Amino acid sequence: xxxxxxxxxxxxxxxxxxxxxxxxxxxxxxxxxxxxxxxxxxxxxxxxxxxxxxxxxxxxxxxxxxxxxxxxxxxxxxxxxxxxxxxxxxxxxxxxxxxxxxxxxxxxxxxxxxxxxxxxxxxxxxxxxxxxxxxxxxxxxxxxxxxxxxxxxxxxxxxxxxxxxxxxxxxxxxxxxxxxxxxxxxxxxxxxxxxxxxxxxxxxxxxxxxxxxxxxxxxxxxxxxxxxxxxxxxxxxxxxxxxxxxxxxxxxxxxxxxxxxxxxxxxxxxxxxxxxxxxxxxxxxxxxxxxxxxxxxxxxxxxxxxxxxxxxxxxxxxxxxxxxxxxxxx
Length: 330
Ligand code: NDP
Ligand code: MG
Known about the structure:
Elements: E1 4-5, E2 19-23, H1 27-38, E3 42-47, H2 53-59, E4 63-66, H3 67-73, E5 76-79, H4 83-94, E6 103-106, H5 110-113, E7 124-130, H6 134-142, E8 149-155, H7 161-172, H8 174-177, E9 179-181, H9 184-199, H10 201-216, H11 221-230, H12 232-250, H13 253-266, H14 269-283, H15 286-296, H16 300-310, H17 313-323
Parallel strand pairs: 2-3, 2-5, 3-4, 5-6, 6-7, 8-9
Antiparallel strand pairs: 1-9, 7-8
Helix pairs in contact: 1-6, 9-10, 9-14, 10-11
The structure holds NADPH dihydro-nicotinamide-adenine-dinucleotide phosphate and magnesium ion.
Magnesium ion binds next to helix 3.
């Protein structure tokens, strides 16, 4: 069973006198900066010259500096910019500011686990990863709660790496909900596998395959869209709130019987074998290498795939149908 930490396990004193540099003010960055600041920690936000977020961060009462100055000032520096730019920004603007005993923090393990950032040996390397988007991390904190998070130590130079991580997580509000201990390896590999096989890749292909099957059999695409895509949210919400059995209790017995007998035919042994191969590609680093090279090639493959996918009838039709549903307009 996983080790889970709560408020009582965190020692905020460990961060006394330590400045926390938050690099980036996006989804996670704005939430971390504001929560830690409200928790009484010493925060500086590191942003690029001319970044429009500078004004937003200042308006929130935060100290703002250039990335290199923030990294220099920070005893703890957390990388909250997109994963695919972290290695470059780290090399150019963060590394020069790191001194012995500093800590380098992440909210996702990709760059450390796959050697895109190779940290010097005399610093702590820690992950504090909320299991929710930044706006929720902020909202829960304001409401007196927190978002469950992960903590992991990759390198413990000072002997206080875990304590620093937990104190940071407490400032974020995360220990109010629970902070689960993991490793950079486990967080990174499960995150990539989950998004590839289930959440993004698996789910979108399942929806498209169902839609294509109905349309090719002569059913109206509008009806196929509602059946295979639109209603997915209803079922996912039921699973999210009540678990799989709870969902089955809440759909009709006909739906439940069809689920129990036909579901395993869709996700059959071949699909499960393919999932294992996808996991192997994550574990071996083959996917990471491919993605790093793809970025170096200006995402040539990705752009081609994006264009092709956007032209699928489920997308063009979906746009039309969603415009009929006023509650879906932002
Ligand atoms: P965002 O994409 O929201 O971060 C954008 C921020 O990074 C902006 O401040 C942006 O500045 C800045 N930025 C972008 N490019 C650069 C650059 N080249 N140099 C300097 N700053 C730059 O990131 P997220 O908050 O989504 O992700 C941050 C980290 O958190 C990642 O490691 C991610 O995996 C992790 N994470 C994200 C979660 C989420 O729900 N989003 C959940 C858990 C972890 P500008 O406005 O100028 O572009
Ligand atoms: Mg420093």
